């Protein structure tokens, strides 16, 4: 288990932090994310000291909506200072957000306070984009405004590197749905165990397992059996138990998956047996990200827009620090347990790692024969390797989707800028050849194109028809 949100720097833990950490490991909680608050000097210093002492404690940087702060410029300075000193331990910007539980504020000042909170929230979201970090979002009594702000943020040009709605407390599944659509994870804490919280438990049941995180928010919000007492990271097991019970999922499975989710969100690369950005689930399919390398350099690539490199898809950061081995892929894929298909896709060309791809496909078929295997490719593998790769995929790939993207070679070279070094190979003809070969060896073959200006979709559809394969229209900037 990982406690994805706690506050270990608080004075509540001053006397027995060592014991707290010992109890964590005794109870199978390997790591924790202890929130770093930039609002008070002594608190952030203490957090940095803790993360320096203990390898399994990560931290974040941010100003809570209710915390006092000097001004935005000062936050920016503090952020830069602590980030440059502790980059390797800092995994997110947070907790930030909106908190309209403002009973102590006189009525006439309410709007002003809310406006300031929104300004602070947006400012810190921009910091997250600039540092390519995910965000940990705190929302209380402010879902409507928070959804508006996050909608804009999750589509922003500077990049959205994922995030989590921490201590989710709404019983309305429509609210959770809004965040899920944007690509956020949802995290539950101790209040899910409270006797009267049936509504929240029902909401948790509806959250897809691959989007769940668990947390304690300690020292606050102790679970039911310790209610009113100090909370601590080892109690995150009670949150896991409550959700597993509610969902009817084996505890061990949900444990593995919530750890995988946390590893994916925060790109944690030192949690033994777990690998960030290798596999991610959308609906009934697990997508596999074998490499960030490409045969092409497409002008429309979501990876390279506006001169920046940006590797996020639906809230997942797919920038690989290291290309995964077949064993690492298999272990990542089977962290998920309710899927029907695997798809070699990601932000890179999977066939550039053809041996690993084949090994994974064979293993998946061996482990779970009913799982379908799909490949999304640029169709240039034969040109790259100088041999018939389509034939090698027989029996291990059930369907292939090949991006043709253009009605002729000139437009293809313009749009996709193939980087194949052999001058004698015409990329476009090689793809057409690959489509024909795929038809011989692979059951379902489709050709795809993106609705970009200059692309004659009807013409490409006809090419697909004449080759006897299906056609799929893709939309610009809609990956995965
Ligand atoms: S093939 Fe895909 S990932 Fe590679 S450059 Fe083109 S659009 Fe980007
Ligand atoms: Zn908190």
Keywords:
480 residues, alpha/beta, TIM Barrel, 2 domains, eight-stranded parallel sheet, 16 helices, 38% helix, globular, binds iron/sulfur cluster, binds zinc ion
Outline the structure in words:
- The chain has two domains: 2-266, Metal-dependent hydrolases (TIM Barrel); 279-474, TIM Barrel (Alpha-Beta Barrel), CATH 3.20.20.
- Helices cover 38% and strands 17% of the residues.
- The chain has helices at residues 17-26, 41-53, 72-86, 110-131, 143-154, 173-182, 198-206, 236-247, 251-266, 326-333, 354-367, 381-385, 389-392, 409-416, 427-441, 457-467; strands at residues 2-6, 31-34, 57-61, 90-99, 135-140, 163-165, 185-188, 212-214, 279-282, 285-288, 304-305, 308-309, 312-313, 316-317, 341-344, 372-377, 399-403, 444-450, 470-474.
- Strand 6, helix 6 (173-182) and strand 7 form a beta-alpha-beta unit.
- Helix 4 runs parallel beside helix 5, helix 7 packs across helix 8 (236-247) and helix 10 packs across helix 11 (354-367).
- The structure holds iron/sulfur cluster and zinc ion.
- Iron/sulfur cluster binds at residues 294, 296-298, 301, 303, 347-349, 378.
- Zinc ion binds at residues 5, 7, 35, 95, 217.
- DSSP, total strands: 19
Q: Assign the structural class, choosing from mainly alpha, mainly beta, alpha/beta, alpha+beta, or little secondary structure.
A: alpha/beta
Largest sheet: 8 strands, parallel
* N-C termini distance: 28 Å
Inertia-based shape: globular
Strand arrangement in the largest pleated sheet = 1-2-3-4-5-6-7-8
**Number of continuous helical runs:** 16
Total number of domains: 2
**Cα radius of gyration in angstroms:** 24 Å
Q: Which kinds of small molecule does this entry bind, naming each only once?
A: iron/sulfur cluster, zinc ion
Mean pLDDT: 95
- Relevant CATH superfamily of the largest domain: Metal-dependent hydrolases
In the CATH scheme, the class of the largest domain would be Alpha Beta
Helix content: 25-40%
CATH architecture group name of the largest domain: Alpha-Beta Barrel
Unreliable residue stretches:
none
């Amino acid at each position: 288990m990982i406690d994805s949100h706690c506050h270990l720097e608080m004075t509540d833990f001053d006397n027995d932090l060592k014991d707290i950490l010992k109890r964590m490991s005794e109870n199978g909680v390997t790591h924790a994310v202890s929130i770093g608050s930039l609002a008070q000097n002594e608190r952030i210093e203490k957090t940095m000291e803790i993360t320096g002492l203990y390898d399994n404690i990560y931290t974040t940087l941010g100003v809570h909506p209710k915390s006092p702060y000097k001004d935005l410029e000062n936050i920016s300075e503090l952020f830069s200072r602590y980030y440059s000193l502790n980059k390797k331990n800092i995994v997110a910007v947070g907790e930030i957000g909106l908190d309209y539980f403002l009973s102590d504020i006189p009525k006439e000042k309410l709007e002003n306070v809310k406006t300031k909170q929104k300004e602070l929230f947006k400012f810190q979201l921009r910091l997250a984009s600039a540092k390519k970090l995910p965000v940990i979002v705190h929302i209380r009594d402010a879902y409507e405004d928070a959804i508006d702000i996050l909608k804009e943020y999750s589509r922003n040009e500077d990049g959205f590197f994922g995030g989590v709605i921490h201590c989710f407390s709404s019983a309305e599944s429509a609210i959770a749905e809004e965040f899920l659509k944007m690509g956020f994870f949802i995290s539950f804490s101790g209040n899910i165990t409270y006797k009267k919280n049936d509504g929240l438990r029902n909401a948790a049941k509806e959250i897809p397992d691959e989007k769940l995180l668990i947390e304690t928010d300690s020292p606050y919000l102790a679970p039911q059996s310790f209610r009113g007492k100090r909370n601590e990271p080892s109690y995150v097991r009670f949150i896991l138990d409550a959700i597993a019970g509610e969902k009817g999922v084996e505890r061990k499975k949900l444990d593995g998956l919530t750890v995988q989710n946390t590893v994916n969100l925060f790109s944690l690369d030192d949690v033994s047996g777990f690998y960030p950005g290798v596999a991610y689930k959308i609906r009934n399919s697990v997508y596999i990200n074998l490499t960030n390398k490409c045969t092409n350099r497409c002008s429309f690539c979501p990876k390279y827009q506006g001169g920046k490199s940006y590797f996020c898809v639906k809230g997942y950061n797919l920038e690989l620090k290291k290309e995964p081995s077949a064993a690492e892929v298999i272990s990542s894929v089977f962290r998920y347990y309710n899927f029907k298909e695997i798809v070699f896709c990601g932000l890179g060309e999977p066939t550039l790692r053809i041996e690993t791809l084949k090994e994974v496909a064979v293993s998946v078929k061996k482990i779970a024969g009913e799982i379908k295997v799909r490949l999304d490719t640029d169709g240039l593998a034969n040109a790259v390797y100088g041999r018939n790769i389509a034939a090698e995929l027989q029996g291990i790939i059930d369907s292939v989707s090949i991006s043709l993207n253009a009605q002729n070679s000139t437009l293809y070279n313009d749009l996709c800028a193939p980087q194949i070094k052999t001058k004698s190979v015409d990329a476009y003809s090689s793809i057409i050849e690959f489509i024909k070969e795929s038809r011989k060896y692979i059951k379902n073959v489709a050709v795809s194109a993106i609705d970009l200006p200059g692309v004659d979709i009807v013409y490409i559809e006809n090419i697909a028809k004449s080759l006897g394969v299906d056609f799929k229209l893709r939309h610009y900037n809609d990956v995965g």
